[in-house]
Amino acid sequence: MNLHEYQGKQILASYGVRVQRGYVAHNAEEAVVKAKQLTAETGTGWHVIKAQIHAGGRGKGGGVKLAKNLEQVQEIAGQIIGMDLITPQTPPQGKRVHKVLVAEDVYYPGESETKEFYMSVLLNRGNGRNMIMYSTEGGMDIEEVAEHTPHLIFTEEIDPSVGLQGFQARRIAFNLGLSGEAFKEMIKFVDALYKAYIGSDSSMFEINPVLKTSDNKIMAVDAKVTLDDNALYRHADLAEMRDITEERPIEVEAKEAGLNYVDLDGTVGCMVNGAGLAMATMDLIKYAGFEPANFLDVGGTADAKRVETAFRIILKDPNVKAILINIFGGIVRCDRVAQGVVDAYKNMGDDIKVPIIVRLQGTNAEIAKELIDNSGMPILSAVQFQEAADQVKAALS
Ligand code: GDP
Ligand code: MN
To answer: In which pathway does it act (predicted)?
Structure first.
């Protein structure tokens, strides 16, 4: 689950990480109120207005702007809220902005002593260890740094049995070219950041930029956080941070129905039990010369109700030209699934306008095939993978 910048900063602050302070506002008037409040608390006269959407590169798209007085706060917040912000990380049509973060300006005007760094904590799946990735080249696209100047990206692997060690935090501060007060500040920053990452069961914390202010404070100016969905049950407070307006509606609906669904760009919808078989089925579709419209794992209990829900979700995608159902009956019997498919089909009446190909393999597969073939419904059945691929081809050619 992804978070907004302001939510990521809340988590960071709760673990003692210094962050650029700010408040969320939903309209221009509220932005002015929040700016006044911030001035009272921090003494800042200038504010940055930052669009809150689940995508990076907001600065480039015009979603991060400096306001030098309250009139500008009102004007800029008014401009940004309601706009469709297009960044390199949004869909081509952009993402609608519903709220902004009104933050203190931390790049004190007139000073050239600030420095931006890059830092992220993430899981290295290659060796199953957490690592801190960091660079002197902050504020820029880290992918670009990796491509053109890979020697400027450093990593620090953390041994899970002992956690982040003092010498590692010192090495980071050293490699970033810091000394004196800023060096000590960076050590505290890294330590607290790592605690926040571990404590919130996150799979990624990306802080770009980490700022060294003109008075040698180290702080998080941005925060991109991905929480581990499988650990959310341990964090009721973090689970509440979910913003479903940022997620694809079709995926939200599937999640509510308990289905594992990922929307894709192809034309062949698939309904499968088990993630492994779902992947194999997507390969099968590609092998037949087409692209999958989705990934969908209906899980172990493929009864009529679940199959119907899955049908409805798949058919919401206007690109779907055929549906391939591929079920392995190991624990669940194939004839029960077949009955489920037939019943769901009956229930949906005229709503299904695309060919359906069903491949059932495993316990009672023959009975299941008979059931489908004798149902009187225009459902095509297959037993072998190859057969299923051929039928998809025939249905779409
Ligand atoms: P992103 O573009 O989505 O990564 O959003 P960021 O939060 O990283 O902000 C983009 C850029 O805005 C940063 O790299 C900074 O250069 C700039 N920025 C952020 N906060 C401030 C601020 O307080 N003052 C000034 N002058 N610039 C800021
Ligand atoms: Mn950023």
So the answer is: Carbohydrate metabolism; tricarboxylic acid cycle; succinate from succinyl-CoA (ligase route): step 1/1
